[in-house]
Structure formats: structure tokens, C-alpha cells
Amino acid sequence: MSDEAFTRVVGCLLDVSGSMRKALEAGRSDEHAVERLVAVLRAALKVAQAEHRHDPGALVFVGLFGLDTDTKPGCPSGVDLFSVTETLVDDDSNHRSGHERLIALANDENRPNITKYIREKLTDVDARIVHAYLQRHEELKSDFLDNIPPPEEWERKRKEGQTTARKLGFAGGCAFGFMVGPLGMALGASIGAALGGPVGDIVVDKVEDGCVHNSEALRLAHRICDEWLADFVELTPRPVADVIKQLQRLQERIDNESENTLLRTLRRYLYGRTPMRDILARSSAVFREYSTAKQGVLLLVSDGFSTDGDPLPQVRELRQHSPEVTIATVYLSSDGDAAKRRIYDQPDTHWNNGQRMLFSMASKVSINTHPIPVLATIGWEIPSSGSGALYATVCSAAALEEFCSMLVSARFGVADTLLDIVGRLPLDKYINDEHVRTCRRPSDQGGRKTCYAHAAAAVIHMALVRIVGRVGGYPSIEEIRRRILDSFPPGPDGRRAKDVLEKATPWYPPLRFREVDEDGARQAVLRRRPVLATFYLSEQGWEAFSKHFTTNGTNKVPLTRAKMAMYRSLPHGGGHAVVLTGCEPLSLTLLNSWGKNWGDRGRFSIEDHTVLELDDATGATRMRFYDVYWLEDDLKDAEKKAFDDEVDRKLRDKAEKYPSLLELDARCPHCCQDSPIAKFRGSIRESVCPRCGMTFKPESCHLLRALYARAGFGDAE
Predict the structure, then answer these.
(1) Distance CA 655, CA 447 (A)
(2) Which residues contact 580 (CB under 8 A, 6 or more apart)?
(3) Which residue has the higher pLDDT, 37 or 662?
(4) At residue 501, does pLDDT exceed 80?
(5) Rounded to whole angstroms, how far apart are CA atoms 323 and 298?
(6) Lowest mean per-residue pLDDT among 521-525, 540-544, 630-634, 712-716
(7) Which of 124, 178, 678, 685 has the highest Cβ tally under 10 A?
(8) Would you call 320 helix, strand, or coil by DSSP?
(9) Is residue 282 over pLDDT 90?
(10) 3-class DSSP state of 204
(11) Which class for 659: exposed (0-12), middle (13-18), buried (19 or more C-beta within 10 A)?
């Protein structure tokens, strides 16, 4: 298949090796032991559905690896799941069971007597496997059928058995009658001869059963059931629509089977060794084959323990040959305490080697550009560094679905649009404000020291515009600044930002503020909250600061602690107030008010907060951060309604552009059933469930779950 028509390839690798038994079965040995395997397969379906909504032309493959090659001779270590399901699950037009298929094959070759043995000696799934295998391997069909004795042979054996039994019965009856007299002898001979026929049938049936049980045909059938998976070792990307159809059929089959016959059949092939290097090498070959695809995703669900060597070289090779591929890893655990709904930027000290391995394999992404904040909205912890690995430790099916769906929806391209429902400040207005842009250096005694008022006004305005339909409107930066300057006219050294915020935030309810450290400041900006930052430098420090950010070649480079170290011990030469707007693992980005031609289009970056500090035992000149925020409980009813109305409008607009959004599932909190959004009546304020008819108010986080994660989720553990 040519890869030129496809822009994206998505692969899922599911570890079903022996070390995963506990995680997949969660300590259960009864018929429900495969429920977590069902959850993993359901997560694969969610990923495929999300991918289809985003890119209907995408290709998807799913591989199972870690099959039992030790006790199942001929069984491969890994297979393509969709090739397997094609064998196990019918299309909708053919509802014949596996028994019926194999019996029909026997009847076509005049072997009707084998019917009862097909039903008695093979399960329905086994019969389906044998039938499908013989259809693919025509050369073995005759081996199977020719080793089933023809009906005339069984009829001859039956007659011989009946004749022999009658003779034995006659002789036995005579012997019995001889002991009781002439009359008894005649009666015994008649009864013995009469019973000899049925006894002969029983004998022949036993002989026939033994012959069938030990026949080459049945031995071949059992060998096929051990080796049939070897036909499906090649990972084959398929159109995502076909993948969804196959997984849905598999899910329906599982749901409709009260005894989970299908999954119990699959289960007997699971729990072998963990050939992670091998499956990664085969996945890498797939991505190389489809090298013209613009994007690729490889999702690995495992415990990270490989039995065929270190998998990291395979990962490095994959990244080298296919740099467009994003790798995400999931550590599936049965330990609820170990599972954290959290994105990590570095390994946790309590992790085992498997978790560390999976973390090392995962791609690292910027939290600013990747919609990981969506996970934060629904309760996931995100790192303050501004970067994280696409790795998660999960225990519940819901958390697994959240992470997998986020991975795919990360490339949907509408995250910024939907987050902008809460509003944004046009940054050009802050950067280029003529009132303060001439004050290039805070230590310049010829300028008014009003940066505190401008920065405070900016963060207050930024916080207010996040309230949709705010009662009282949105005062401009200029308006807020004038009010601040009226109450806090500039002094010789400006004003303390904390004093300004303490008085100014109550002017504009429901605003609040709190002083935070660098970590708290990072968490705030990652959640799109404005943060006011203040710092002090010495006279020489200001010179170095100004030179660094006004010189081509360094103006876009973060200022380092080492470069400013020599100026830390000097007397302070003035302070400044700016707005923190972003963070990366090794830097903070701040917004200045000195015009677009300064720094990097009005912004500047520093290594960390210690760059812009002076040595001071009192702590008076250390860098400080102030998080300006509001709480949902403090919003007025009209403001909450305005937000709901805005979300409704955005949803309608997006649904016109992306009709498939209406296919997203939402969950009713009453009946806990999922239904497409299009089937709910009402609005975001009051929706009516199409299943139970109950009314409820959808939470905004539920909308984010539906819009970003593409599916309804239950509560994660």
C-alpha cells in the first residue's frame, strides 16, 4: 500500500507478557480476570475513534506482544491484533458459528459423520480458527478431511460390532439359561441376542470416539490452534475506519458473550516473555515504510520489563529514522497507590526499573504548546518546569482512556481556540504602551517610576477578561493604572507591588492574589493565570541586563545566573515589575513594557528567579511572584450563565466546522451511560439525557473531556 495518500500513522503496542498478568487481571482468577484486558482494548478503540475524527485518512496498527512461545509450540511472540480479530469475528453479513463453518466444510467433502465430533471435540472459537486456517492454507484441507474416516467405514464397523455383540449375547444367554434349566436357556439366548445389538452400538461408539480423539485430523486441528497466530506476525497499518469497525465488532462480541469465550480463548496464548526490542524494531520498520507520513504516534502500554535486551537502542533508532514519530508510554499497574494522574518531567524516586525505562522511552513535549493543561483541568498534576514526558502510570481504565485520548487529541489544533473562551489580553497593548515605554531603565532618575502600576494593571486586567460576561465590565489597563496611581503615586523607589495588589484587587471583585515561589508561579502560568513579577538589580546589573537584551545575538537568549553573579553583591540600583507569561524546563519568559523592539519582541527570558536577585540577608531584594486569580464559587450567577452561553456558541461554531464533534460521547451522571452529544436535548446549562430522560447541568470539565479527550470518562481511581 502506498503511503503517499496518508499523512499520519498511529501505532499501539499492548504488552500481554507474563509480567503483565497481575496488571491485566488485577489479581482475579475467575471469569472476570480479563476485564482489564478488555479495558486496554477499549482504550485502543478510543484512540482509533479520536484519530478518525481528527484525520479520517490516518493509518492505524495495533500489536500484541508477549505471547506464550514456551508452552505453545509454533506460537509467535507478537501479532497484529486486527489480523487476529478478522479471523475471530465475522462481518455483519455472516452469522454462522465456528462449528457451523467447519461442519459445512466437512459436509462439502461428504464427511457428515464428523458433525458431532466437531461440536464435542472443538470449542466454537477453535472450530472458527481451524476453518479460517484451512481457508488460508488450502494445501492442508485435504490432510484434515482425508483423516476423517468416511461414513461407510463407520457403518461397516457398526454392523460388525452389532453382529459380534449379538453372538456374544446369545452365548452369554445360553450359559445363563443352562444354569437355570431348558426354559431359562431359551429365554436367556433370546434376551442376550436382543441386547447384543445396543451393546454393539455402544462399543462401536466408544471405539469411534477413541479413533476420532486420536485421529490425525484432530491432532492437526489442535496443532493449528497452537500455530495459527504465526500467520499474523506482520504489523499492518490499516485505514482508521476499518480499525474502528474491527474493534467495535470485537467489543460487541465480547459484550454479547456471557462467558467471555472469545477472550478466554485469547487468554490461553498470553503471558509469555517480553520481546520489547523485537516489537519496537518491527514498529520502526512500519514507520520507515510509511516515511512520507507527516506525523506518527507510537503508544506503548507495558510494565517496562524487556526480556530480549535493552529496548532504548531501538527507540533511538526509531527517532533517528523517523523523527516525526511521537512516542508515548503507559505503565499499567494493579497498584492503585502507585498510579498517579500526573505528567512527569523527571523520574520519581519510588519508581521501579520498568517505570524508569518507559519514562526514558517517552517523548518530551512542551506543556505550553501541547494541550496537557486539559489534563490539569480534569485533575491531573502537571510539572512546573513547562515540559513533560508523554508517560503515565495508570491503574484505572478511565485514567488510561484519558491519557491515550489526550495523546491523539493533542494534535487537534483547536486547544487555543477553546481555552480562549476565558479571554486573553492583546499583548501588543501592554508591550507598546506609550506611557511607560520611554522608561527604558528603572534606574534612570529622569523617568517616572510607574512600572509597578502598569504591571499590576496588566495582570488585573488579564484576570478580569478571563471572566466571561463579567458584571461591571472590563476596565482597561489605562483605567486601572490611573486608579492605582491616584492611590499610589510614584515614590523615589516606586512602590511595593504587594501593597498595590492588597488594595487594588478588592476594587475588582472577585479577584484575589497570593505571593508564590517560582514553582507556584510556573503552575499558575501553565493554567493561563497572570503572574506579576518584581525584581531588583544593582546599577551595574542593570547595565548588563540592558546590554544583553538589546544586543543582536543575545536578545533572544535566556540571561544566566553565571552572567549576573558578579553584580549580586552590589547595592541595589532600582527595582522593576513585569509579567510572567511562560516557562520552559530551563527558563522563565517575562513580558516587559518597553516596546516590541526591545528584547525578543518585548519579551525576555532568564534561567530562573535567582538571575534577577541581589544578595540580601533580609530577603528584601529577592525576586517575587504574585498570582492573581479568582474562584468559580465567587462568580455571580449571571457570569456563570454568560460562560455557559459562550461555550454553547463556541460549540455550535465548532460543530459547523467539525460536524464530527457532535459524535463525541458525554456521560449522564444519573444513569452513567454514554451517548453522542448530538442526542442530548437542552444546552450546557441544562441537558436532558436521551437514555434515562433525567435533567442535569454538565460541568465545564466534562465538556473539556469530551472536546479534548474525545470520549466520556468515568471517575478514575
Answers:
(1) 52
(2) 521, 524, 525, 531, 532, 533, 588, 589, 590, 591, 625
(3) 37
(4) yes
(5) 12
(6) 712-716
(7) 124
(8) helix
(9) yes
(10) helix
(11) exposed
- State the pTM of this model: 0.67
Which grid cell is 196?
Answer: 447384543
**Dist CA 458 CA 634 (whole Å):** 21
- First-to-last alpha carbon distance for the chain, in angstroms, is 42
What is the gyration radius of the CA atoms in the chain, in angstroms?
36
Q: What angle do CA 22, 711, 371 make, to 5 degrees?
A: 95
Phi first, then psi: give them for residue 259, nearest 5 degrees.
-105, 5
CA torsion, ordered 173, 178, 180, 181, to nearest 10 deg: 120
Domain chopping of the chain, boundaries = 8-76+233-412, 87-148+215-232, 156-205, 427-633, 658-709
Res 8 pLDDT > 60: yes
Alpha carbon distance 517, 16 (integer Å): 44
* 602: region left, alpha or beta (phi > 0 left; psi from -120 to 50 alpha): left
Using CA atoms, how far apart are residues 292 and 7, in angstroms rounded to an integer? 7
Residue 596 pLDDT class (50, 70, 90 cuts)? confident
Q: Strand, coil or helix: what is 498?
A: helix
Fold annotation for 8-76+233-412: Rossmann fold (3.40.50)
Output the pLDDT for position 182.
Answer: 53
Instruction: Give pLDDT, residue 443.
Output: 35
Q: How far apart are CA 576 and CA 579, in angstroms?
A: 10
Q: CB of 449 within 8 A of CB of 491?
A: yes
For residue 418, is pLDDT > 70? no
CA distances from 97 to 91, 135, 262, 652 (A): 12, 15, 12, 46
Q: What is the mean pLDDT of residues 448-454?
A: 82
Confidence band of 90 (pLDDT split at 50, 70, 90):
low
195 or 390, which is more confident? 390
Please name the residues in contact with 393: beta carbons below 8 A apart, sequence gap of 6 or more: 330, 331, 333, 338, 339, 340, 342, 355
Please name the residue that has the C-alpha cell 476594587: 507
Is pLDDT above 50 for 358?
Answer: yes
CA 697 – CA 663 distance, rounded (Å): 19
* Fold adopted by 427-633: Cathepsin B; Chain A (3.90.70)
Lowest mean pLDDT among 175-179, 456-460, 600-604: 175-179
Q: Quick one: cell of 25?
A: 487481571
Q: What are phi and psi of 635, to 5 degrees?
A: -70, 150
Query: What is the rounded average pLDDT for all residues in the chain?
Result: 77
- Burial category of 664 from C-beta neighbours within 10 Å (exposed 0-12, middle 13-18, buried 19 and up): buried
DSSP 517: -
The secondary structure element, H or E, covering residue 705 is: helix 700-709
pLDDT higher than threshold 70 for residue 627: yes
How many CB atoms are closer than 10 A to CB 713? 22
